[in-house]
Design brief:
The protein contains 7 helices and 11 strands. The chain has a domain of 162 residues: P-loop containing nucleotide triphosphate hydrolases (Rossmann fold). By secondary structure, it is of the alpha/beta class. The strands form 2 sheets. The protein has a 6-stranded mixed β-sheet, with helices on both faces. Strands 1, 2, 3, 5 and 6 form a 5-stranded antiparallel β-sheet that branches. One of its GO terms (molecular function) is ATP binding. This is Bacitracin transport ATP-binding protein BcrA. InterPro entries: AAA+_ATPase, ABC_Gallidermin_ATP-bd, ABC_transporter-like_ATP-bd, P-loop_NTPase. Belongs to the ABC transporter superfamily. Keywords: ATP-binding, Nucleotide-binding, Transport.
């Protein structure tokens, strides 16, 4: 029997009476990488924001370790949604120091997370001078400060060059061996295919598939099938 770290059941969220997420039920095994795929505007970010406590669901439930989600669960979750929350005039270490002080975490975590994301060499270079890939890795370092068991990454490959993508891909692959479960959202099929253990495909706010990762043309065909079904039902507009 699989050890499940996170479950959502019939999760719903609307904005101005327009459904954004409609009865989404996810099952995330512990120490895995779960890829949440979908077109832009499919409901991926809204789903992740509800899990991260940034949005309140209209209905449905979220369970972590078999228990109903509460604010206390945030101490076990790391989140990088949208742009990394960086002070661009500060160095990597200074950015992390601000967070350790605000969270009451030990100063030793700074060097630990910098080593994990391979940013120990950045010295006095300010975050505003970092490449996009370095900024993403610093954002992940911030998300790792509280030693989360669950790490939520929303479109982390966006805007990265091929080298940045490769570095981030290798970093994400390393997390399950460190006891960190990853939920990774993306609309880039090939990237999720290369890192995910399981996937969910969402379109028009509806989860159309959840399970093993098909490869190559099979994944593309499945993705298009889910997106087409959502369009036929009138929940997605081209």
């Amino acid at each position: 029997m699989q050890d499940i770290i996170l479950e959502t059941r019939d999760l719903c969220k609307s904005f101005k009476h327009q459904p954004a997420v409609n009865k989404v039920s996810l099952t995330i095994p512990r120490n895995s990488i779960y890829g949440l795929l979908g077109p832009n505007g499919a409901g991926k970010s809204t789903t992740l924001k509800m899990i991260a406590g940034m949005l309140r669901p209209d209905s449905g439930s979220i369970r972590i370790h078999g228990h109903e989600w509460t604010r206390k669960a945030l101490s076990r979750i790391g989140v990088l949604i949208e742009a990394p929350p960086l002070y661009e005039n500060l160095t990597a270490r200074e950015n992390l120091k601000v967070r350790t002080l605000s969270l009451g975490l030990p100063h030793s975590r700074i060097e630990e997370v910098l080593a994990v994301v391979d940013l120990t060499h950045t010295g006095k270079k300010r975050a505003g001078q970092f490449s996009m890939g370095m900024k993403q890795r610093l954002g992940i370092a911030i998300a790792l400060l509280n030693q989360p068991e669950l790490l939520i990454l929303d479109e982390p490959m966006n805007g990265l060059d091929p080298i940045g993508i490769q570095e981030l891909r290798e970093l994400i692959r390393s997390f399950p061996q460190q006891g960190i479960t990853v939920i990774l959202s993306s609309h880039i099929l090939t990237e999720v295919e290369q890192v995910a253990d399981q996937i969910g495909i969402i379109a028009g706010g509806v989860l159309g598939y959840q399970g093993a990762v098909p490869h190559g043309q099979e994944l593309e065909a499945l993705f298009m099938q889910v997106a087409a079904a959502a369009r036929r039902e009138g929940t997605v507009h081209a």
